[in-house]
Amino acid sequence: MNSTWSVLILAGGGGHRLGGVDKAALPIDGTPALERLLASLPDDMPVIVAGPERPVARPVTFRPESPAGGGPVAGIAASMPAVATPNLIIVATDMPWSGPIITGLTERFALSSADALIPVSHDGRRQVLCCAWRTDALRGALGELGNSRGRSVRSLVALASVDEWHLDMTESVLLADIDTPDDLTRAQREPPAVP
Predict the structure, then answer these.
(1) Rounded to whole angstroms, how far apart are CA atoms 127 and 152?
(2) From CA 144, how far away is CA 193, in angstroms rounded?
(3) What pLDDT does residue 178 have?
(4) Chain segment 88-123, per-residue pLDDT in tens
(5) 10 has which bridge partners?
(6) Domain boundaries, the chain
(7) CB of 49 closer than 8 Å to CB of 60
(8) Helix (H, G, I), strand (E, B) or coil at 62
(9) pLDDT grade for 63, boundaries at 50, 70 and 90
(10) How far apart are alpha carbons 121 and 129 in whole angstroms?
């Protein structure tokens, strides 16, 4: 088992812009989004899923959001007791093609002294829902933030030192997320080419 990195998948969102659907179960080419993401991760990397328990093909630790519906930072906070590695990837379940970016984050983080490493898409957007953290720094930021209910991941990132990884257009496409019915239609018709 990987003793350096874990992955925390945020899978407790309500999918409001998709009519309240379960994003983790969204079918992408016949495979639920969560399963597609899990299959892209190294087999030896411990995975924590912040969301309701469900059948999956690989061993994971489920940690429900506390409180339910409390948002991504509440999911992160509820999951931290299950993290036993010095470094952590946080990724949203609706980024099912992000596996190569996750690998790139673990490689580039070795060259960084910052608390977190955040990809920046080719159009200048920080992708805070697919980023790398030092676990102790994340715990410190959560403590400083206080009540996690309804807080944004950006508010958490603001409490950390951050390096950025600027992605080209091909890399940026791998972080396409599924927030709207149009996003889902596009993902099902024209999924990104994953290297």
Answers:
(1) 13
(2) 40
(3) 74
(4) 999 999 888 899 999 999 999 999 999 999 999 999
(5) 50, 92
(6) 5-186
(7) yes
(8) strand
(9) very high
(10) 12
Q: Looking at domain 5-186, what is its CATH homologous superfamily?
A: Spore Coat Polysaccharide Biosynthesis Protein SpsA; Chain A (3.90.550.10)
Block residue for tokens 């983790």:
24
Element (H, E) at 114: none
CA-to-CA distance for 79 and 32, rounded, in angstroms? 22
Residue-wise over 112-121: b if at least 16 C-beta within 10 A, else e? bebbbbbbeb
How remote is the C-alpha of 119 from its chain's centroid?
A: 12
Residue 176's beta-bridge partner residues?
Answer: none
List the end-to-end C-alpha distance of the chain, in Å, as a whole number: 24
Is the pTM higher than 0.85? The answer reads yes
CB atoms within 10 A of CB 111: 8
Distance CA 30, CA 15 (A): 19
Q: 2 falls in which pLDDT band (50, 70, 90)?
A: confident
Q: Largest Cα–Cα distance of the chain, in whole Å?
A: 43
Comparing 68 with 190, which gets the higher pLDDT? 68
The span from the CA of 48 to the CA of 6, in Å, is 8
Give the length of the chain.
195
Distance CA 11, CA 13 (A): 6
Judge residue 174's burial from the number of C-beta atoms within 10 Å of its C-beta, 0-12 exposed, 13-18 middle, 19 or more buried: buried
